[in-house]
Each structure stands twice: as C-alpha cells, then as structure tokens.
Write a structure and sequence with these properties.
Blueprint lengths: L2 E6 L8 H12 L6 E6 L21 H11 L3 E7 L7 H9 L7 E9 L4 H13 L2 E11 H4 E2 L3 E2 L5 H18 L1 H6 L1 H17 L3 H5 L2 E8 L7 E2 L1 H14 E16 L2 E14 L4 E2 L3 E10 L4 E9 L16
Parallel strand pairs: 1-2, 1-3, 3-4, 4-5, 8-14
Antiparallel strand pairs: 6-7, 8-9, 10-11, 11-12, 11-13, 13-14
Length: 325
Amino acid sequence: MIEIGIVLGSTRPGRLGDQVARWVHERASRRADARFTLIDLRDHPLPHLEEPPGFSGRYEDDRTRAWAATVAACDGFVFVTPEYNHSVPGVLKNAMDHVHVEWTTKAAGFVSYGGAGGARSVEQLRLICGALQLADVAPQVTLPLATEFEDRAVFAPGAYQLPALDLVLDHVVAWSTALAPLRRGDAEAAIRGRLDAMVEGLRVKDLEALRRCYAPDVVSFDVEPPLQHVGVDAKLENWAKVFTIFEKVDYELRDLTVTASGGLAVGHGFGRVSGTLKNGVTTDGMWVRGTFVFRDTGDGWVIVHDQASVPFDVATGRGLADLEP
C-alpha cells in the first residue's frame, strides 16, 4: 500500500502546526487507499546542513541517516507549513536539504497556514520540490489565521475546508501511485532505502517498522537456533529477543553490494549488532556475514530471505566471532 508522510514543518515554541497536522492526519486516516504517518520535525533534530550532497544516498551523521530512512519509507508527502517572513520555515528547508535521492519521484501536497494562509511559503516550497524532483500537486489548502483560528490561536477550520483537503489527498495518493514504476526503476536505491529503514527500526526498537521490511513468508537463516525462522512473526520474535537484551541498540551494515534483475535482488555485506546492555555494559558485538534476497511486491522491495553466519574453525568446530571486515 502507498505510504504518505504528513510532515509537520514547524518546531518553534507555541506553534500552531501540531493542531493543523492532527486535523490532516485524522482526516487522511479514514481513507483506505494509502497509509498515513505523521512526521514531526521535532523528532528529527538535524544540525544545520553539514552533509556532503546527498545524491549517493549515503550519509555520515546518524541523525541524517535516521531522517533519510524516514523519508525513504514514504511514497509521497503532505507538507504542513506556516509562513515565516514571506517564506518557508528554516527548519523545514534544512530538513529537505539534508537528503536528496529519498525525495525523488514522489508526490507532494501542501496544507499551509498564516497571515495570508501560508500561500507564499507554498510558492517557495514548490520551487524546492522541483529541484528535488518531487512532483507537487496543484490543489492546496490555505488556512488564514483570521478565519480558521479562534483568537489566532485555536484551530477551528470551517467545514468548507474538508473538500479542499480531500482533493489534496486525492491528488497526492494518485500521483504517488502513478510514479511508483519510476521509483522501482532505481531498484538499488530503493533497496538501500529499505535497509536503512530496517536499521532505523532496530535503533528505535520498532517491531512494526521492521515488519514492513520483510515479506510475510520470509525464511531467515539467523545465527541463533533453530536452523531456520519461517514467517515474519518468527523473524520478529528473534529481533524482540535482541531488544530484551539491549537497553540501546545499534546496527551497522558495511560493504553492502546490491544486484537487481527484474523483480528479485540480492545483497551481501557485513552486519553488526552493538549497543548498551540492560546491565549498563557497552558491547561492540560481532561482525557476521549477511546475505539478503529481496522481492518487488509492487508496493516496494521486501526481504524474502536473509542469512547471517560466522566462519568456524573446522578442526575445533568453534565459531570465529572476533573477525572484522
């Protein structure tokens, strides 16, 4: 199913955008043609842009990688934005500049608010979207402070705003769906984005985010017994065990190679789980050899098989867990 992110583009104290974003999310969640997730930039405290250009999809800062995974998981966006001094909020512009390939060939709609309904902010956002190869839809919702907010502080939109919002959502879903073949055309970028989303799901211990990375019938050959874990629930049980051991989890993929052909792809590299245990001890973990097999479902690439292993000494049968790539 198409995934649409509702991006709340203001983080300032006393903001009105949270009221507007909830209104958009509540209305959107009634639909059956897409899933909608509220993305609050307060949850992504990015520094002022310090990354090299993001055309490769590889980022150095953990905060950028987390943000990239969030953006990559979406097929389209609705930006909820105020207007600051005739322009877009700096924090939203900074968030859009931090990544690049994760925005490409997706759709964008706008719900704006402010003294002039936020219309001038949206005009600038459309130019930014063009540079990022985001397809901005024509309908938009503008919410003037004088008419849609009681005492310019409490959001109380008129019922006439709902058809306008529905039209924006209709167009964002339709264009996100129509652009899906183009997104699938860059299979390697999409697969790396899926793995980035998996890594971020591990770091925040989000089993539902991990579920979206695997096929329902995934078969996993993990380092822990039994010999195989069949089905996504069995795979998630294994990750849940990790979460019970670690207070804070980190995961690193290194030297990843991806080859795609048709609707299947194979990736291999080295992976390592590390972090802080429940008893406060920090561990670097061990490097394992990882292999992934992906299938294109039409809604995105999912893992249908993975295998993690360590070499072992044939003479002693002892696994060699202290090797590094």
